[in-house]
Amino acid sequence: MSGLDPGFFLDQASSSSFECCICLDVSYPAVILPCPGEHCLCRPCALQLSICPIDRAVIDPSSKTSGCKDLSGMILRVYNALRLKCPYQSPMSCPWQGVLGDLASHRSSSHRQAAAAKQGETSSSSARDEVVATTCTCMTGPGSETDTTNQEEGASSS
Asked: What are the mean pLDDT values of the chain's consecutive 10-residue runs (158 residues total)?
């Protein structure tokens, strides 16, 4: 599995629109395949394919890295506005809730040790496997459950 467990998302109906058909998690990071249907998958899953699993179109090996497109426009805004709980620790130890567009920033500011540990792992591990014992620095301040101002700004700026 390569994406984010759907259980971390607060609105499961919206997040299911971005389900990767390979790992069945929410695509993270999400890319669009270079196939006629332009299907959305996790980047790690997409890079392992030679045939689109949905329309069975052959994916040119030379286009796997350059041919996958990042999400854009309205789709990107909807994707980045998906609300979720922190996936980097057990839910009880990190109270952060925010939008997917702010997840990378939250991870780098609050879970530095988790980010450092992840850099030493292989790229095939899932975001769910990034759970490591570390001190969460997001218990108070911007991005915490008690600070909804930052969360609303993140959602409106996406």
From this structure: 85 90 92 89 89 90 72 91 86 83 90 58 40 35 36 38
Report the 3 state secondary structure along the chain.
Answer: CCCECHHHECCHHHHHHHECCCCCCECCCEEECCCCCCCEEEHHHHCCCCECCCCCCECCCCHHHHHCEECCHHHHHHHHCCEEECCCCCCCCCCCEEEHHHHHHHHHHHCHHHHHHHHCCCCCCCHHHHCCCCCCCCCCCCCCCCCHHHHHHHHHHC
